[in-house]
Amino acid sequence: MGEGPRLIAALDNPRAQLGPLAGSLRDVVVGFKVGMPVLVAKGIGALRELRDAAGDSLIIADLKLADIGDVMVRTAEVLKGYVDVVIAHSFVGHAGALDKLKEYLDREGLKLALVTSMSHEGSYEFYDRELISVESLVARLRPWGLVAPATRPWIVRRLRDDLGSEFRILAPGIGTQGAVPGSALCAGADYEIVGRSIVEATNPRVAAEELLRAQEEAIKRCRA
Amino acid sequence: MGEGPRLIAALDNPRAQLGPLAGSLRDVVVGFKVGMPVLVAKGIGALRELRDAAGDSLIIADLKLADIGDVMVRTAEVLKGYVDVVIAHSFVGHAGALDKLKEYLDREGLKLALVTSMSHEGSYEFYDRELISVESLVARLRPWGLVAPATRPWIVRRLRDDLGSEFRILAPGIGTQGAVPGSALCAGADYEIVGRSIVEATNPRVAAEELLRAQEEAIKRCRA
C-alpha cells in the first residue's frame, strides 16, 4: 500500500453526530467504520448522513455479519449505496453463507472484509483455535480485506506472512483497548481502526492528527 | 415446557408491515424474531411498532451479536425496552465478550439466547467442530436459551441430552430451509422458528395455524 493515511475512525457512539464528526475528520482519516449500536439506534438514516459528509472516504459497515447467506445478503441490500465495505465473520463458513454474500457484494461492486480473529481475550476460546481454517477460507474466498486484532500483533504478522500482500489488513484495538498506535502497522497491517480515543476526545480532529503522527513515528522506528 | 404455542415467527422482510403482521399473529405464535435486515433498514422504530402490536408475545432481537463485550452491551442498551430476548453467537467466547453481555442482560431483566450451531451447510466448517466447547460455554454462562438448527435435529437432540432441560432450545430452519414442522420439537426443541413460510404466505395467520397443526401431529407421532 501507499503512504496515505492509515487511520480508520470507528464511529460507535449512538449519541455522536455522525455528519459533523465525519466532516471534521474526512481529510485526516482514510475511512469511517460504523458499528451496530449506531446502526440499530439510527437505522439507515445514519449512513445517509455519513455518506453525505464523508466525501470519498471509505465507509465500512461493521455489523460483523454472521448469519446464513440469505440473511447477510438481505442486510447488504439495505446497506448498498451507503457503504463501501461490509464486515462479516469468517466463522459462519463458506457454504451457504460467505459464498452467497461474496457473490452478491462482487456483483454490486462492494468490498468484503472478513473478521479473522478478535481483540478481546475470548478470541482464544474459539476463533484463534481455528486460525488455520480461517486462513484456508480467506485463500479460497479472496475477500478485499481482513480484520485482525492490533492487541495481538503476532496474528496480524502471521496473516500477512501466510497470505501475502493481496489482502488489506484492518486492525482494531488501538488506544482504549490497549494497543499502541503504529504497532499493528509495524506487524503488517494496512490500517489501524481507532474508536474511543478519537470520538471521545475533546477535539476528535486533533486526536486523529496526533494518532497519525504516532503511527508515523512508530513506522520509522520499526523500519529502522 | 407446557403445551402452549411452540411457534416463533421470524419477521425478516424489510418491506413487511411489522405492526399489522404481529397483530394478526400474536395469539397464534409465542413470539416474534426480528432479524438484522429489518433492524438496519428501519432502526429502533420497527421495534417500537412491533412492541406495541405484539402484546405479551416474546420479542427476540436476532442481530446474532458477535462482537467484543462493550459493543454488544451498547447494542443491547439500544434494544432495551423493546425486546425480551437478545441472540448472540457462542463463538465470540466468554472472556471480554459474553460475560459482559450476560451480566448486563441479567441486570436489565433481559434474556440471552446463544447460537450453538447454524442451519446452513457452512456450520460444519467451524461451528460444529467446536460443539463440545460451545456446550462447556453454555454450561458456564447459563443463558436463557439456545439457538440450534432444525435442519440438523441430531444437534438439537445432543444439546438437550448433554445440557438437560434448563435451557429453552429455539430451532430455526423449518419450512423454506428444509426442516419439517414438528421435527425439531420431536428432537427436543421448545420452539420452532419459521420465517418465509409464514411472512411470505398470502395469509400469514392461516399459514401459522397450519404450522401449529403440523407441529401437533408430528409430536403425537414421535411420542407414540
Summarize the structure in words.
The structure is a homodimer of 224-residue chains. Chain A has helices at residues 18-25, 36-42, 44-54, 69-79, 94-108, 131-141, 153-163, 183-186, 196-199, 204-223, and strands at 7-11, 31-35, 58-65, 85-89, 111-115, 145-147, 168-172, 191-194. Chain A has 224 residues and is of the alpha/beta class. The longest helix of chain A is centred in the C-terminal third of the chain and has 20 residues, at 204-223. The radius of gyration of chain A is 16 Å and the shape is globular. The first copy, chain A, starts with 6 loop residues before the first strand and ends with a helix. The interface between A and B is large, with 52 and 52 residues.
Straight-line distance between termini of chain A: 19 Å
Quaternary state of the chains: homodimer
Q: SSE string of chain A, helix = H, strand = E?
A: EHEHHEHEHEHEHEHEHH
Stretches of chain A where pLDDT falls below 50 for ≥5 residues? none
Please work out how many helical segments of chain A DSSP would assign: 10
Question: Helix- and strand-based class of chain A?
Answer: alpha/beta
Backbone shape of chain A: globular
Question: Mind describing the biggest β-sheet of chain A?
Answer: 8 strands, parallel, barrel
Which range does the strand content of chain A fall in?
15-25%
Largest interface: A-B, 52 and 52 residues
> What percent of residues of chain A adopt helix (DSSP H or I)?
40-55%
How many β-strands of chain A, per DSSP? 8
Strand arrangement, largest sheet of chain A?
Answer: 1-2-3-4-5-6-7-8
